[in-house]
């Protein structure tokens, strides 16, 4: 934002670092490039004189483990998972993806201070570091933060000097510390912040809107100031067109660290909503004797919401069904290393099926995700923990709870409290304390902290089974989240008519994109030799259910505010139901696969969650006629009825039947004679008139490769990614849904081949390989821009197929 013209004196303070943002009185330098990294313990790794010239040079965000190799021996965990009905411990492979995230890693970064900084304050900020970070500056220990998901910062003013400085970070990941792939290293952004001594504290604004109406909103801003004696605080609010709409200046301040509260009115506020996510900006200016010493920028939204016990969530006075998904933090082939383009693409794909909410399961997300949710219109269930003191993992959070739970939760709330998208704090997921008699005490302890830090949002948790409703546990929470156990909802309502509910985790249906088991019946924990799950959306786990059963539960219990499906995207690790097999490196739970390709159920959700006409036919129509005589055809649609034709022959009309769960949300033709050709669907409107048609065709032999990029122009910033979908097609351009063949990639020009993937959970080819098998006709390549504008050109070749070329412009 350029709301002020004065150029500050701090320019050029750092040499060799790119200045990413300048505001009056403060300078932010992203520490992205030129880090030195090595794996393993290094004696005196923090010292200035250490020679790190032989270490690898890396850019941050960096995930040291995503380069693999995948190996079943990496973090094989002997565990008994009670929810899986296991009576004894079993050796679970691939639980953390078989990637080498364990061990110690050292990062070092030199930076120069070009001018005397005696009058300045210098902070180093980490958006998260995996894990057990110990931070040193010029050989001095400056602080530590063990939980790898929490953002933290340290004041390093006393440790820096003019000239060369060395920032060193030691990280350590213990095996058996996670139930999914956690990532490893400086996987989120790191920056240096310089301010004057008088400044707004880190995360130092707390903006709430206690009164909201269409005519007027009261905006309450609490600002924590440091070194502020004799300063005034000028607070300005700007609307989304950057116009100053309200301001207030305090009296001169007495004291050096204090919180000031100001209340500003906003007339005719534009309310934040899913459809219209309007963002306002606050500039907090610290002024002494006419000189502006600091300008701190925060953004917020004006909205009101309430959870009701009988009618779910109301946002700005209107009922809103939460159509959410749970998301782990990894970005598939990129691992845990944060990348803006990849995060954005995930949200675009999710929005496309009508998703309006994200649960950051089961930990603090990267801050960029929340900013995107603010501006793209997603609600967020901001979650802190997967375990408390009663451990789920041998080396998990259980060891941190006593000393860190309060600090971690405070960090989450202080960092995230101004985001309009955040509409509840979740303090846990399937916490084992819920089953103990005095677990409620720990619940109360953590809920009290959340209430103390922010009383504008409900505190929730993902519970499971009956016990927490019967002991004193569930009572502690403002909003009761239940995972799965759809049959409990009517009972819960009956027993506790005044409780407000959200289905904090639903479905856990398992599927593999494009693989269809023609025995299309609901199957609980079903294992196949090919280690795949069927794409009919009917395979589920011991504790879980199909979407159809989950939808029925919500439709029959409209008091529940909505759901968070497990999961939006596939993620690395937890390959249920193939936890004991190898190779299986990633989950099957996603509605979308690991590479961002929708599985069939994407359209089941889209039909339910959007008003767009959906008429999706499954399976594909490329079967071996000598083996396959009949095929079950399922149609995911929001039309009530449709007629099916194969090569012109009608197989009759099907109409949704609210009394049969597997006919309530999908149209099913059980035995359609298989003959190659065309399957056509004609859907009917309420008056029985044809309203929409769709068809699929049998493809002939694979003939060519086809490259499609949704991001054909990207920034020449050395970070942005273009995502290129690679399809195998026949001579007429029909997609070949059963093609599984190797494809080679080469890249020239203003960027690089970054990674590739195909969504196949069993493929353990490193993501960085330039050769990739397509999986059921598709794979994905990610190209990364360099800092020089130009054209990136990608060529894809495969034996006996026509090759393809695609250009991406960078500027
Ligand atoms: C839930 C759990 C999730 C994930 C999921 C898989 O019980 O909360 O983290 O493990 O099961 O179905």
TrEMBL record:
GO terms for molecular function: hydrolase activity, hydrolyzing O-glycosyl compounds. Residues 208-303 form the Glycoside hydrolase family 2 immunoglobulin-like beta-sandwich domain. Keywords: Glycosidase, Hydrolase. Residues 101-195 form the Glycosyl hydrolases family 2 sugar binding domain. InterPro entries: Beta-gal/glucu_dom_sf, DUF4982, Galactose-bd-like_sf, GH, GH2_Domain-Containing, Glyco_hydro2_dom5, Glyco_hydro_2, Glyco_hydro_2_AS. Residues 310-606 form the Glycoside hydrolase family 2 catalytic domain. Signal peptide: none annotated. It comes from the Bacteria. GO terms for biological process: carbohydrate metabolic process. Residues 629-690 form the DUF4982 domain. Pfam families: DUF4982 (PF16355), Glyco_hydro2_C5 (PF18565), Glyco_hydro_2 (PF00703), Glyco_hydro_2_C (PF02836), Glyco_hydro_2_N (PF02837). Residues 705-806 form the Glycoside hydrolase family domain. Belongs to the glycosyl hydrolase 2 family. This is Beta-galactosidase.
